[in-house]
Amino acid sequence: MIRSMTGYGSAEMLTPARRFTVEMRSVNHRFSEILVRLPRDLSALEDRVRALVQSRVLRGRVDVTIMREERGARPKTVRSDTDLARAYAQALRELADVLGVAGEIGLSHIVSLPDVVKVEEAREDVEVLWPDLSRAVEEAVIALVGMREAEGRRLAADLLTRLDHVEGFARVIEGRARVAAAEYAQRLRQRVAELLREVPVDEARLAMEIAIFAERVDISEEVTRLRSHLAQFREDVTNAAGAVGRRLEFVLQEMGREANTIGSKASDLEITRAVIGVKSELESLREQVQNVE
């Protein structure tokens, strides 16, 4: 069964030390595009997150947002840059000499200057964090895919309903095509008889005109190909697995081509009306297929 490209999924992973929250939103896209946003110190895990999502989502744009909330204070370290402190002290002495300003340069002055003393949080090993984060990502992907599948079932129901309408119009076209030539022959005979009246009708010439007309308006091949495309479309919607959206777009394009050819050959009003109905349904199908994975 087909899947939609729109969906949402989220998950949380709670541990004694932290909480991971993962949110995923997917929308239509011609190809597969996974955008991952996560804390900077976890950037080394971005490719793993993307690969995990791509293993389940074959087409569409997916925005993945990962948030981390620490449940306790993370270890911190205080670092001093002694080289920078010496440089500051030397620069302050030189400045005092140039300006002729007296006074001692104290530790409090130097410590207050930028980057002399830094408080840094201890870096965590991403390999230790990955098992918990990966479980949260997997749960969010499962939720996302579940929503895409549910939406896909609704899409499939609508597509199959519209496909039934197209098949109904195709039956009308096929039925009228069988009698259109015979009706034309009858009209032609009546018209010739009215014009010639007492003059005998040249049956050979009349038969040739009827045969030429029948060949010119013959749509049996187009109807056969249209029915083949309809069967392929139904099979893909009902039973195909994986990303079938682009194949469905191609089949719709071929159906549209056959409908245009039938319309250009048609000389029957009912066939023309049926072709208009086919094109209307194909346009609706095309809009819906844009959202199929």
TrEMBL record:
Its cofactor is a divalent metal cation. InterPro entries: YicC-like_C, YicC-like_N, YicC/YloC-like. GO terms for molecular function: hydrolase activity; RNA endonuclease activity. The keyword Nuclease applies. Keywords: Endonuclease, Hydrolase, Nuclease. Residues 2-156 form the Endoribonuclease YicC-like N-terminal domain. Residues 174-293 form the Endoribonuclease YicC-like C-terminal domain. Belongs to the YicC/YloC family. This is YicC family protein. It comes from Candidatus Segetimicrobium genomatis. The lineage of its organism: Bacteria, Bacillati, Candidatus Sysuimicrobiota, Candidatus Sysuimicrobiia, Candidatus Sysuimicrobiales.
